[in-house]
């Protein structure tokens, strides 16, 4: 887990810094920016959080999320509770992975993300027997 300084920044200062960060990300190549700014640990943490939120939105069972992302049951529960309060509404409704897939680019990004996530899920699962109810359920959740 990334180290966070014990010295707190004033709320007003934090808000200004956060707004500036969002403005910079919007103006530059996000991929390069993230690679340059964040450590590998921070990138993994953010990727897991994004995946967790989106998997919850798609209705994946908690146990599948835990095994796939290697997170604890309490982490999944915490994110589920936060999502029920509407905290991830902007992310899940307006992201390229949400339901607003009007543009072809967004649809392509959504498809690529879920295809890659499916591959990761299947890596951690036992071999499948054709026609089993368990695999039918998992496949239905992913498509």
TrEMBL record:
Q: Which InterPro entries does this entry report, sorted A to Z?
A: Trp_repress, Trp_repressor/repl_initiator, TrpR-like_sf
The UniProt entry, under Gene3D superfamilies, shows: TrpR-like
Which Pfam families does the record associate with it? Trp_repressor (PF01371)
Q: Transmembrane stretches, by residue range?
A: none
Name this polypeptide is given: TrpR like protein, YerC/YecD
Q: Which domain of life is it from?
A: Bacteria
Q: Name one GO molecular function term.
A: sequence-specific DNA binding
């Amino acid at each position: 887990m990334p180290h966070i300084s014990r010295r707190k920044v004033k709320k007003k200062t934090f808000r200004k810094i956060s707004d500036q960060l969002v403005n910079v990300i919007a103006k530059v190549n996000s991929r390069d920016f993230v690679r340059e700014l964040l450590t590998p640990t921070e990138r993994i943490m953010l990727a897991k959080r994004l995946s967790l939120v989106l998997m919850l939105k798609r209705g994946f069972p908690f146990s599948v999320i835990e095994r796939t992302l290697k997170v604890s049951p309490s982490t999944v529960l915490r994110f589920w509770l936060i999502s029920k309060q509407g905290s991830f509404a902007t992310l899940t409704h307006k992201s390229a992975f949400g339901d607003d897939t009007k543009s072809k680019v967004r649809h392509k990004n959504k498809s690529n993300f879920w295809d890659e996530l499916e591959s990761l899920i299947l890596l951690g699962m036992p071999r499948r027997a054709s026609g089993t109810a368990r695999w039918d359920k998992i496949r239905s959740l992913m498509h």
